[in-house]
Amino acid sequence: MKPAFLLLSMLAGSAGLAQAADYDLRSFVEANWDYIAPQASGALWTAHYGDQDGVLLPPLSAAAYGFACGTCTQIGQRIDAGDTAWGSGAALPTFDGVFLHPGPSDASSVAIVFTAPSDISLQGVTVHAEMVSNGLLGNGVDVTVSHTRGGVTSTLGSFVVSGADYTPQAFSFGVAPLLFMAGDRITVDVGPNGGYSYDHLNIDVVTTAAPVPEPETYALMLAGLGLVGFAARRRRAA
Question: Whole-prediction pTM value?
């Protein structure tokens, strides 16, 4: 390998030019929601009552779900693919997700929020969803995906999840890389689709993003390129 190319490669590696990574709701819930302590405000993933600025919902425990709660807004219980506690025969969950039950109005919907932990380059958002046990009583749920950058909110798209239980659907929102500053948000609002009748959802949300290099990284890269150019001129002069 030529010394100049080796130098440039070493500089690129040391600059920390990381590849895009996935941040998914299910993995965060599994690692951080203990179903007893309240959610942490400003965490990577949070769930709110009504909208992204609403109060934090208490994570649902396995024992809390049921008709005793009726129309309560609920989120939190993990659902595993093939879990017979949620169905039987061929009617079983098809992916690992999180149980979600919106309330009877938009004001009692669930807002799932991803908050950028640092400056990142957002490359896409994917929502995996399916109706689960007792999810066929109404018209399904309405889902809207948006982002808030610098205090300005824009909608990426919306869709309806309905139909037979355990019929997986995936909705992807590819975007040209968008710069997200630390604290900017992706929000997935889930509410009733028209008539309300206890529609339940298995859901997972995945954001794909890459870290944004620090200014010092660019300075290091430019210095490296300068050294490569200097070495090339010296070889020509010799």
Answer: 0.81
